[in-house]
């Protein structure tokens, strides 16, 4: 009997069920016959499929491509085999899902915590910002953008590239920062850390498209990068506050200090990783290092989830990674 | 008879005349007696002086330091000798200049062209910007800031670190750009080049202090750098225009493109030289390369002005530089 | 009806016309049948073609390869389709062009200006060299080599890799240099600039093969590089002049200074880009920077010519490049 | 009246009290008279002193040097002045402290927590290591070496260069790691983290001399570095355990994995910072990043302790650092 | 008639003979039929083969894979053609070799000298080590490990990746070192050089698997690298000697100096090439440089063996390499 | 009684004898009195001296400077003391040496072998060059330049900066090369190695001044570097040979290959160390590596000659260096 959940498909099985289309490429056989390379997915599981010409069901290429479009929900049937150690499937039948037939959220990868609880926790961190102007700016920018912020990815390809990845990444940094602040006492300024970390990647809601299925860099993102974008958001907020009330030089200074922390959260300029100013405070250095920790944990966890215990693999951007086995692992 | 113009002082001469104090350091002899190392200047000529304790004229150190303050205009007498190939002077008498006794402008190094003619020429370039929103932004930012812009230095230490150095450097780039645009025709967008070059270093009026005698980096300059500062000025201008009239997506895009050209005018991020985004247009690449040309010409001219013909010297940031001699040089 | 000019071929059309063979690779299908991957071209337009075994017309592979040879002019028929966003063609018929049937010059990409006018203009620049020994060396080397110089490519792959690309690139640099010299007056030595720029890449006529259809590095080019080759040409000329008349030390010095400018025109040694000495004069630094400007303008123009407006593409050696749209572009 | 505690000395005051000799250099005046440059200290406060020839009290240089030796406790009298913004003192009288006259611990800078409480807390961490062979190795190495470990410096010059600096640094990392482990759950292996962090710098007890007043690199330290030294300690322990009982392959593997974490705690080899193997587990990457955080916090705290609020200074290894002022700082 | 020795196979010939299986990959045709890509070898000659489904002889994929396993000796028949300038073969028949039918040693690439003579010569070098503790350690480690040492490869892919490559490489370095020592006299310590060179790569017998047909990195190799592994072997030997007799501080020091030479034989840490300590003696610097010479000679010889005279090819890790022709070559 | 040989001077002694002036700097005391810092030398021993104003013997500064000129041979008297661990001397009397009073060769550091024997040995190597055109070029260039070549230094500051250092360095490389050629047989071309090594640094006779007491870079040396200079010498020789007889393409090729070996003897261009072409033969790679070996041996020997056994010192360009003690050292 056929497997009906894509997460359970293994070579040798027949599959009949729903899946999300992630990527489609039209190809030609050496004889010139058109066929499709399609990647279908459920959550983090991706399966490469072939749809041969004789499986087009009499449709021409244009019709087929209008069905197999990026982000479409389809019901397909196919036989799973193995190719280069990966599952591969030849599609024998397909149809579009009917409205209401499937729950989209069961197919999209999301942060492992609920949007609601994360939102509550981030707000609690914002409430701990004791420098009024930083509190006001952070709070207002969060509230004005949180419809996008809470659902956005944190990356096109690298770490946290899933629904609500941006919020989850932001919250993870705040949690690490809380512990560092608790541990080191007055050496670290908690208000500046919480404000900077809440905002540090907020520019990504403009740097990358909002489509969480397959996010891409926007033109504006490529012109300025997410650091300059969020600094612009902060500056506009500062201008607005100034139009409402007198802002002291001290307050302006601390807002610029906040922008410096954000400007330098990709490390020193000499890295060439996109910081827009040198870090010149402890908080700026910390913001970069904490960001690194969460990014690396996410990248390595993602990279090792499908590895076998005891295996070593080369991972892009990390070098070789070993997945432990034995003892308590 | 004593020399009266600092520009003419050579070892062996006695000097009696006016000079500007550029730098003062209080020192102690091995015996513990206080004395001053003072650098005095007229235009580009700097002379290192000693004011020994026995030359204090009965004043205590605090009084002396209130006279020999950074930027003060003094009348001094002294004997010039040579030390390590440089003129050095021991001050034997001094007094503060009386109001109106000397013309400050004869002592400060300035751009080799008049502020008035440079201002006219820059405005003419701005008039050539044919994209209306770029013209408006550039023109308004220039007019609103030109009181500072026209007199500001372009650097603390490196190239164009003199009065109106910023305006002169900006104008030099515009002139080079004009010729490049004339030569390459439609390949290069003249309006974007003129807008970007006029504005590219305008953030320096906030990044560095306005005192042209001895400019320093400001705190805001160190938080953001001049690139982010001018991008902020442009963004505020864009927000203002939007509050007055509808701005099309096309127009916003071209303003962000302008910010990209400025963001990347220190070259690719991998240089680590302070660009805040990668250059992604021909105009962005050109802006960086033209900036380089004018900077190098200024640095080498400055470095070689006091070298002898036929000499080779090591210059900071340039390596060895040879000053040609013979033939037409 | 079939398209007859390769420049107009788009997917879906049938083509019947002439084309130049740029590259040929013999391949085998999985079944072991031989077939050819052929790149044909007209001017800058390249089309990838397949010639299947059943299209060999009974000829064996050797015969086919003798017809589809690099640089051959053929008349072919084929159907154009699309593959990975590129035109691709399956060749159904072919024959060699008859002598005189087509004009080769209509198929080869060339500099956008006539050889004659460029030659006149370069000579005019050489006439402006006012240091006699530099004038003599530059003029004689230009005249002795101009048969090759005026038609040679400037590169195997990168910028100006077309017929007369070397002359066009050289002339472009001279034009930029003229404007710089006009703008900066005595700071820059016009004679040295013109001599150095005229000669700087002349070694390429030996570094690369003269076949402008598909130039390659020569063995001598790989042994020495074009910088050492042209310095050798200059040195031999100097030896010759010395055999005719007395040459003063001043003159020898200025010739060595010329060789230094050329030696360092790929920038400081630390770049690792092939300079053979450090730049130690303003002219040497300028020569490198001006070379860069023309190279980048050519590379970006070439890279964007086939991009759509509003598009961003990754270009080898340049990173991402955006092609502007809207307003005056 | 004279100040008696070195911590309170400011320019203009006379000092009479005890101090520790940190560094001594014999110099000569231009006339050839010998004198000493002496650095004396109490806790973190260092004061540069001059002992002129006429203050030698009739002793010759050898006698003087035997009194002013590195680490000696002296009672001195002197007048404090200012030199280059630093306190400087001319010594007018001196004598060696009598045994029991002063409490050494009041003069040496130490970790801000008591050795006893730190030792208890580190042991509690070791008890949390749930992989038996890692627990045994870590526990035994800690117990065998803790007489040195608990009092040793963590560096010659950089961060944590004070008494018990090694223990304090180690404990700080364990505390950060605990929070990371709590936050990320099973993604991070707590036992491996605690074992690796406890041991990671233990090799420093051999790499640097035990004299906490002025530690130096030992010859063995320079031959192998602290990473190879501690790996050797672990290996010897493994050999010993094997001589007592059978050790499974699984156990050997986890011990080597531990050595890999330690080997790579200075980051990837390409950094050139002294790692002896590439990090190939999440724990290895984490160990490096956590080490960085504590080091940077310590370095910046140390660098800013004597800066004024609002000031920016260039700090070796960190670039410019700003000390915040105003608001909650 | 069919060729029977794989070394003689050229395109167009039929082959029938024995060969060693070096690599096997299961693939599928576009139609989904399974087939194998097999690399077979004799000595240094590698031939890529296809075994199509219709050549499986009725066996299923599992059976086929159990025959075509890595390291298997097979008798095959096939037709050789050319593909991309390389010989390629389609296998038409195959069977496993019978025990004793072929001599394995005729199929494996080995060092060009006999194991016996190399062993004698290395022992003679060890006998020249005049520092007793270095002699004892080197000699005992060599004798205890020489069963593996004499047959092991020196690399997975790079230089000396053949049977006894490790011994041959080691011996080559000893020979170069002998001449250097003879030439420079007392400047170089012969005993330290011989001890260090004999041991420098001995850790590879644990870093890489012992299977000389297709060596791979072991897990332990990836945890520590061959430098730390051999230093561990030396340290264990030192511990053992100490358990037998008193070892003076001088002796311990020279053993640690030996470990430093080995630790740094990949050059300075800043290279990022895997040294585990900085070189701090002449012998350490020399060990690295001599290692380089033998490695480069082997790499270039290997790379050029199949090139034609007069040809230039790009070689991984070396750049372009020219194979001389003419004259005495 | 006074010491009469500078080599034997230690602190506390009085010296009366001859010495060579190596460096002179005019200074002023804080009071403005002139004095001299003079470095005098015998062989490798350098002693820093002071000549105070009261020791001028009534002469004025100009007279004094005409006596204490660079390279002068003087008889001086002085008292030696210690300063910063170095001998320092105050000159109490001085006079110029009379013609014939001292043997200059006893004061200049020279290669440790005689010029005559070195010349014989280099000629013997040249005789082993079996490619006629390489033999002719090498032999003629050696004979034409050997008056300078045999006495020239090999460096201004680094390794082999002594009389005949160039010849000694060249010969050392030839000796290493001979052994490498003997060991590796046909893999290395002996003729090319000998020709390239004999000539590789010959350009230094023009790059640096001929004064072996205090060599400096010449202007021509800075314009071209010694590599381009010797390649020019080779090219002129080739041109000359061509004027005498027909030279085959094969012969020209091998001469250019020789120039490639020399061009690349500072390693790959990416090093930025001054190679003028990439190494593309084994001989080119070897030439660089052998050059390195002799340079490092010389630098480390020179650096350690005055160190105490057991000491570690930081050496410019080498990092820390340890001088072994104990056992056989």
Automatic annotation (TrEMBL), chains A, B, C, D, E, F:
It comes from Pseudoneobacillus rhizosphaerae. Its EC number is 3.1.-.-. One of its GO terms (biological process) is rRNA 3'-end processing. This is 3'-5' exoribonuclease YhaM. Signal peptide: none annotated. One of its GO terms (molecular function) is hydrolase activity. It is an enzyme of class 3 (hydrolase). It comes from the Bacteria. Keywords: Hydrolase. InterPro entries: HD/PDEase_dom, HD_domain, YhaM_exoribonuc/phosphodiest.
């Amino acid at each position: 009997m056929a497997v009906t959940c894509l997460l359970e498909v293994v070579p040798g099985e027949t599959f009949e069920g729903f899946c999300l289309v992630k990527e489609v490429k039209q190809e030609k056989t050496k004889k010139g016959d058109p066929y499709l390379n399609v990647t279908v997915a459920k959550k983090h599981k991706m399966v490469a499929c072939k749809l041969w010409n004789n499986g087009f069901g009499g449709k021409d290429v244009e019709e087929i491509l209008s069905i197999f479009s990026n982000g479409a929900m389809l019901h397909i049937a196919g036989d799973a085999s193995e190719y280069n150690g990966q599952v591969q499937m030849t599609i024998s039948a397909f149809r579009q899902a009917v409205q209401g037939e499937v729950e989209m959220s069961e197919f999209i990868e999301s942060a492992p915590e609920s949007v609601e609880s994360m939102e509550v926790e981030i707000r609690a961190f914002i409430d701990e910002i004791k420098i009024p102007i930083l509190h006001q700016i952070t709070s207002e920018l969060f509230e004005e953008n949180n419809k996008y912020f809470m659902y956005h990815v944190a990356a096109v390809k690298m770490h946290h590239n899933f629904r609500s990845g941006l919020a989850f990444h932001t919250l993870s940094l705040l949690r690490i920062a809380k512990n560092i602040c608790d541990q080191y006492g007055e050496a670290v300024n908690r208000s500046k850390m919480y404000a900077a970390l809440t905002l540090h990647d907020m520019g990504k809601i403009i740097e990358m498209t909002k489509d969480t299925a397959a996010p891409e860099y926007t033109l504006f993102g490529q012109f300025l990068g997410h650091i300059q974008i969020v600094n612009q958001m902060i500056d506009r907020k500062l201008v607005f506050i100034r139009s409402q009330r007198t802002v002291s030089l001290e307050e302006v200074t601390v807002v610029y200090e906040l922008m410096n922390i954000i400007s330098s959260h990709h490390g020193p300029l000499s890295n060439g990783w996109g910081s827009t100013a040198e870090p010149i405070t402890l908080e700026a250095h910390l913001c970069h290092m904490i960001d690194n920790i969460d990014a690396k944990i996410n990248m390595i966890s993602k990279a090792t989830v499908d590895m076998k215990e005891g295996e070593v693999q080369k991972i892009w951007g990390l070098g070789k990674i070993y997945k432990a086995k034995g003892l308590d692992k």
